[in-house]
Amino acid sequence: MICGRHEGEFNRYANFMTTQSMPDLLDLPEPLPLSSLKHWTLDPTYIFLNHGSFGARPKAIASAQNRWRDEINARPIEMLDRKLKGLLEEAKSTIGGFLSMTSENFGFVTNATGAVNAVLRSMRFEPFDEILTTNHVYNAVRNSMRHLIERAGGTYHEVNVSFPIKSPDQVVEALEGGITQSTKLVIVDHITSPTAIVFPVDRIATICKARGIELMIDGAHAPGMLDLDVESIGATYYTGNLHKWVCAPIGAAFLWVSNEKRENIHPTTISHNLDQGLASEFAWQGTRDISPWLSSKEAIEWMADIGWSRVRAHNHALAHWARHLLSEKWNVELTSPEDGSMIGSMATMPVPEALYRAYDDAEQLRDVLYYEHRIEVPVMEWNERWWLRVSCQMYNTPDDYQKLGDVLTRLVEKA
Ligand SMILES: Cc1ncc(COP(=O)(O)O)c(C=O)c1O
Fold first, then answer.
1. Which of 49, 79, 123, 400 has most Cβ atoms within 10 angstroms of its Cβ?
2. DSSP E strand boundaries for 154-247
3. C-alpha 393 – ligand 1 centre gap (Å)
4. Under 8 Å CB-to-CB from 318, ≥6 apart: which residues?
5. How far is CA 273 from CA 81, 235, 266, 286, in A?
6. CA 332, CA 351: separation in Å to the nearest integer?
7. 138 close to ligand 1 (CB < 6 Angstrom)
8. Which CATH architecture group holds 61-302?
9. For residue 61, how far is its CA from the centre of ligand 1 (angstroms)?
């Protein structure tokens, strides 16, 4: 399985295995082909544990994007006019095949926030309407909901899902308890941002459908992290980023809309193709750089050559292992079931409370880890506690988490 050109990666793992003691039950995944940082655009002189925020790209995908940009700059009219429809359809055919979406039901957007705004701005809210979500919601999405529902005189409602969490039932019960006669739209994360939990979206969809409530799933992290079949979930709307776990260039995302609502949803920028169907309207939102959208096809194919299920399994196993390592090292609680059934390729841990008195805020600790220890990892305040979230992508090695564990342990000892 380990061939010559990946010896470097293998040695790093082998080294680790001989020098560390670890919980026996957890198996480390084998390193994958092309996982060495020499194949990625990241600066190899620091440890990057925040794939979740903006993703990271293989060099091959950065080159693919440059080739598309060269083509566009060489023949702007041909690429952005004559050939546009065909080029986008070709990219969409790969993306739709990968995520089980019919081409007419989805369009490109720049990011998940834009997709949420397109849906919210296309809907008409009345003063008695409510939008329902959970306290794990991404703040930009929270702001979008609040702004648009409150402008219409309606109500924004957030239910609490406790964290640490023991079971998906807690998510379902909290949302069910929050639904009222006025609930018009539910927006939930597929994978939450601060807490890195996989929500049971199929069960939430069943509940919303039974009550005739529209459901938007914010799957910003899901494509590439989960084995995703968008249409089978049964939501009304689904958005996903391709620039996170698909490793496409920044600015690649999609909005999928169910058949029943396809005619009602428009991009936030209304342009030439108004009322020509969802796919056509989203294909032209004014002049813009379409290279991230076109390169998404190459990104999907690049990972497919390694094997998407292998990549997902590797990243999940590493996340499962890393959170056990760190939680044990720092003597903090696991935040979701021990078997890893509620996480994907990220895990959130509480920051040891001794550090609260050593730093002004979570951001200062994050910056100390980055500037003084060359580890990029998000540390954030949420629900009045500090949390640290690690991401696990194929270029990460066990040693990365070991180093983070040791550095934070030393900071705790100094605090
Ligand atoms: C759950 C969730 N939703 C939405 C977003 C926003 O993504 P973008 O900035 O690409 O719009 C993020 C970003 O991390 C996220 O985690």
1. 49
2. 155-159, 183-189, 214-219, 237-241
3. 17
4. 28, 29, 345, 392, 396, 398
5. 13, 26, 10, 10
6. 8
7. yes
8. 3-Layer(aba) Sandwich (3.40)
9. 21
Is the peptide bond preceding residue 164 cis, with omega within 30 degrees of 0?
yes
Q: Is the CB of 161 under 6 A from ligand 1?
A: no
Cβ atoms of 13 and 341 within 8 Å: the answer is: no
Tell me if 144 CB under 6 Å of ligand 1.
Answer: no
172 C-alpha to center of ligand 1: Å? 22
Distance 137 CA to ligand 1 centre (A): 10
Q: Are 134 and 160 in contact (CB under 8 A)?
A: yes
CB of residue 220 inside a 6 A radius of ligand 1:
yes
Q: How far is the CA of 4 from the centre of ligand 1 (A)?
A: 38
Quote the ligand 1 centre to 365 CA distance (angstroms).
22
Assessment of whether the complete model's pTM goes beyond 0.85? yes
Residues 6+ apart with CB under 8 A from 182: 128, 129, 130, 154, 155
In sequence order, what are the residues at sequence separation of 6 or more whose Cβ sits closer than 8 angstroms to the Cβ of residue 279? 92, 103, 104, 105, 106, 107
Q: Which CATH superfamily is domain 19-59+307-414 in?
A: Aspartate Aminotransferase, domain 1 (3.90.1150.10)
Q: Is residue 218 within 6 Å of ligand 1 at its C-beta? A: yes
Residue ranges per domain, the chain? 19-59+307-414, 61-302
Nearest CA, atom 7, ligand 1: 112
Six token digits for residue 126: 């009345």
Nearest-Å Rg of the Cα atoms of the chain is: 22
Give Cβ neighbours of residue 364 (< 8 Å, ≥ 6 apart).
Answer: none
- Tokens encoding 263: 């005619």
pLDDT tens, N- to C-terminus, the chain (415 residues): 233 333 344 444 544 443 444 444 578 999 999 999 999 999 999 999 999 999 999 999 999 999 999 999 999 999 999 999 999 999 999 999 999 999 999 999 999 999 999 999 999 999 999 999 999 999 999 999 999 999 999 999 999 999 999 999 999 999 999 999 999 999 999 999 999 999 999 999 999 999 999 999 999 999 999 999 999 999 999 999 999 999 999 999 999 999 999 999 999 999 999 999 999 999 999 999 999 999 999 999 999 999 999 999 999 999 999 999 999 999 999 999 999 999 999 999 999 999 999 999 999 999 999 999 999 999 999 999 999 999 999 999 999 999 999 999 999 999 9
